[in-house]
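Researcher: I'd like a candidate sequence for this fold, 106 residues long. If you have to choose between options at a position, lean toward the conservative one.
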């Protein structure tokens, strides 16, 4: 198994610290995020999602597993937060040192 990509690791660490500026710094300016049927574009979209669903809900993330799929990394995360908890598969695309795309399954 390959190592978790550095931007993904930084995003998880920032989330667990409750560090929204650090969290946003891990994403490309033109990032695309899809969470089930909801889509978010750019840093402003990710910032809104972060406040409504992640750090804004005191989320903590634990990596259960990860694997490479072509140019993507699929990360299985245990999500613990003040509302809904669960295990999610998240597909990340990394470009350089930033996350450029995130797809979260149901």
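Model: Candidate sequence:
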């Amino acid at each position: 198994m390959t190592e978790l990509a550095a931007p993904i690791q930084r995003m998880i660490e920032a989330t667990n610290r409750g560090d929204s500026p650090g969290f946003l710094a891990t994403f490309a300016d033109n990032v695309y995020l899809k969470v089930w049927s909801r889509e978010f574009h750019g840093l402003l979209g990710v910032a809104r999602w972060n406040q409504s669903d992640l750090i804004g809900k005191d989320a903590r993330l634990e990596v259960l597993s990860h694997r490479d799929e072509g140019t993507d990394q699929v990360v299985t995360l245990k999500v613990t937060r003040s509302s809904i908890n669960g295990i999610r598969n998240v597909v990340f695309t990394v470009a350089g040192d930033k996350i450029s795309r995130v797809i979260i399954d149901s």
